[in-house]
Fold Siderophore-interacting protein.
Amino acid sequence: MVDRGAYRERIAEVLAGSHGAKVGYPIGLRELEVIRTSPVGSGLIRITFGGPELAGFHSYVPDEHVRLVFPDTDGTLRLPVRDGLSLDWPAPRPISREYTVRRLDADAGELDIDFALHPGGLASDWALAVRPGDRIHLAGPPGGVVVPTSYDNYLFAGDITALPAIARWLEWLPREKTGWVFVEVVDESQEIELAAPAGVEVQWLHRGEARAGTGDLLEKAIRTVTVPDGQNVYAWVAGEAGQLRPIRKWIRGELGVPTKDCLIAGYWKHGVADFDREE
């Protein structure tokens, strides 16, 4: 029997505290069905999943991730198996890709995941080809990063891969909060509507024909942030791992944000498939 009270109590404890923290959930494995697909700007495609096994799916905070499990190159599907509150993955590890939980509507029995489109990407190509009725196994989420609403300001930044999480963060924020959002995209066609509080400034950064995950466009924008004297900030930034290193150094050093008050995560890395995110 899963003790569902323990992690929910921990979530409530962190939300009522002064600093963010990771909280683990029991990790599930589900076979879900594609209900529909729809474009979100020109850079994302949303897949809505459903089916009986969605019942009991855990989703509480914006920073939650799941893994979609794909067949091996020979078509063999190898799945992890439940081991208490966790999963035991076979070796070699099955092919899988990690994605943000964009939206859960438990009453409607729907789970949304937004996929960043890039040519040759395993999950991206799958998302473009999938049709209603197709099925896939999904593992997780293993937990979430829980952040109190007591910070004075919030800083969110990243590239198109971070946009689904940023969008969910902005929906979650209390409407009176202030802060900054910086999103690097190719051009205006990749911009989407964001439900940001009125006091949160949103800047879209267009890199044009520059290669994704290169250059210092995002870093320069983040460096314009000035936190008012006597106020604190929670910072959340995600994108290409190498591009984030100077940003991480600046946020923790010059901006003076303690590690317990920020999450700066490499979601992907040039030349590495299924990069195990760097924080």
Notes: The CA atoms of residues 26 and 132 lie 28 Å apart. The chain has a mean pLDDT of 94. The first strand starts at residue 21 and ends at 24. The chain has five helices and 16 strands.
